[in-house]
Automatic annotation (TrEMBL):
GO terms for cellular component: alpha DNA polymerase:primase complex. This is DNA primase large subunit. DNA primase is the polymerase that synthesizes small RNA primers for the Okazaki fragments made during discontinuous DNA replication. It comes from Anaeromyces robustus. Its cofactor is [4Fe-4S] cluster. Pfam families: DNA_primase_lrg (PF04104), DNA_primase_lrg_N (PF26466). InterPro entries: DNA_primase_C (IPR058560), DNA_primase_lsu_euk (IPR016558), DNA_primase_lsu_euk/arc (IPR007238).
Amino acid sequence: MKRAGVIINSQRQYDSLSQYPYIFNFYKEFPQEEIGITEFETFALDRLNLLKDIENASLSSNGKSLVENSKLYELMKKYLPLNTIGDGAKMSLEDLFYQRRKDYLSHYILKLAYCSTEQLRIWFIKQESDLFRLRWHRCKDQNMKKEFIKSLNLNMTELSGEEKEELKEELLETSYLDNNFKNKDQYIQAFESDTYYKIPFEQVTDLVQQRKIYIKGGVAYLPSKEQISLLLNQYKENLNKSMEKMSQNLTKKEDDERIDPLIINLSQQYVEDDYILSNGNDIKYQEIPGLVRYFPLCMKNLHEHLTFDNHLRHGGRMQYGLFLKGIGVSMDESLKFWRKMFNKMTDDQFQKGYAYNIRHSYGKEGKRTNYSPYSCSKIIMGNAPSTGDHHGCPFRHASLDTLTKMLRKSNIKENHVTEICNYAKEHHYQLACTKMLEYVSGINNEYLENINHPNRYFDQCYPNSEYNKNKKLNSTNQQDKQMDDLMDSSY
């Protein structure tokens, strides 16, 4: 049985490498591959685990390139190994085939799971692009790289030796400015050994903006060392188009009780675990305005609009209300807080329209479900705010101008505001939030956890949180232990 090109509940026999000639792939053709349910799920989870590890590494990279992270290459070997003939691994053709088969099928299975919404597509394309970059950097088989690029039929022409010599001065001024050469001879040698290509500049606008390539008459002169930028731009564009088309096709398909639950579960797998409430219920409603300076930007924004408008729509109330619950505001104090803030209505209106929902969020009404505060992923991937709404993640949903103004209100230096906005523009929303925490709190980045939850931001920023109290206690106990060990060794 097929589902978007994947055949379920069958078994495939070994074939030649002609089906998967490279370890790189744009995954343009729907697989006509036969695969069992168990293999379907195993392949998907292995790839998803790798993508999650890549995302975590990106969030903790502190601006360093992912290709410098040796741990990621070990994880690639663990989850999705891709060897080549002659790389020293001594793999049989059959083993190489099944490695590439797993890579191809696992990509399409996750594509099924992550094509349904724009937010899911953005996340998937980002991690898949990073995986492609890592594979390209790791591969030392230059012939395979050349053959793969040739197979893509890209609109690029190799620069002749005569043209290269004529443009030598201009090409040298742009192509190698970011390299650390020991002397001029190394600089010239690198240029002489490199191959250049002519392409339409629109295909490498990122390199144009960074002034890394020479442009003349609408033509960009691309050195081979920058080919990865061209490939990634093409890859992202193709992947986005194919996922949009797949999403449209999925709306027309028949339900499949075997596969649908797996697909839904996979699309939710990367969301963080529920936040475990670590603070007691000892924060009074009158104290909340004084604590806002320790809030993440999303909650500062909600509090500001609540104060100004004396109201928040449902999405904002849920996001902010559960956050306050997480920092240690009890149900009774929460009822007092919201009643004070909603001061343009009568007590009867508040009790009938809002009090029930507040009690419900604390597990005291309805099904008695004790709701957890929203994670960053839930906020980022959830329904985007429309006109009049203020929920969501400012790094994800606010315009650049609005985000800049919000960061300036937090007294962040202008150069840091620019840095944080750049992370947001690159879709590193949680890294942008972590950077904000670093600059607002003054805590060294080495001692901060990456932000995956608004309440974890507060825990780290607020000096009197249970998190910081325990951290300080553990540090004191460790120092005491070291002192005891030192005293014992002196006898």
